[in-house]
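User: Rubrerythrin. Structure?
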Amino acid sequence: MFSALATRRRFSELSEREVLALAISSEEDDARIYRSFAERLRADYPASAAVFDGMAAEEDGHRQALIERHRARFGEVIPLIRREHVAGFYARKPMWLSANLSLDAIRAEAEDMERTAGAFYVRAAKSTSDAATRKLLGDLAAAEARHERHAENLTEDNLGGAAKTEEDASAHRQFVLTWVQPGLAGLMDGSVSTLAPIFATAFATQDTHTTLLVGLAASVGAGISMGFTEAAHDDGVISGRGSPLKRGLASGVMTALGGLGHALPYLIPDFWTATAIAMVIVFVELWAIAWIQNRYMETPFFRAVLQVVVGGALVFAAGALIGGG
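Assistant: Predicted structure:
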């Protein structure tokens, strides 16, 4: 590792030829990243893919201009120097990470790429005394500064109001299917199904330690079960519900949290204090579920309250009656 770091040079130590070579490789990398974004989005968001195709084409134009300037100044052989060869220089995320980025995250990443590229050309222009090279680098700095506006123009050409609305709706739907729906199912299962065993144990034993152990076992066990079930029963290929790993994670974590919410108050030694706090948390959990159903699943709020709160109250009553019987 020390050897690798020792071979890196600071930007201030680069020659004009090396700065040009760095700019050429950087433009090549950025064009490749934009094309990877386009490929990632093409199936689900074709209009946004066209935007990134256009941005990649502009980066190709920058690279050609830089190559022509290098040819005029230094000849045909371009030194191999990349961002990772320069100490403290900005780096791009690996392209394979784009497979895990949402549409909005990809747009934000592209904005950051434009901003850092513009800052690079401003700095690079200051490092050369050749008038033509300085002009080219300054022009590229200005071009990168306008790149956000260029992207807006591409968006206007390729991503009109109707297309953008449709893509945003599709992205929202995918978010709901992949994260909200399984997470909500897990939260409902964890919050409601653990009510009976936890409060039955609480009222039967009136022992906070025993109740806590039962609550932990029920919550963690339910989380593991729901997570595996969600991940295993649908690979998302036909249903379009997204990655089974993401859905399983959302379902498992929210199931465990739903049960732990009213199990952890039994860390308090006093039984009635712990039970009162647990009941308040149950009330908050059930209302949160109703709100999520109304917000993301478009369930009428009154119906959501009726389904969740009444159902939860019945399960709680069953647990209390069984435990107190």
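The longest strand covers residues 9-10. DSSP finds twelve helices and two strands in the chain.
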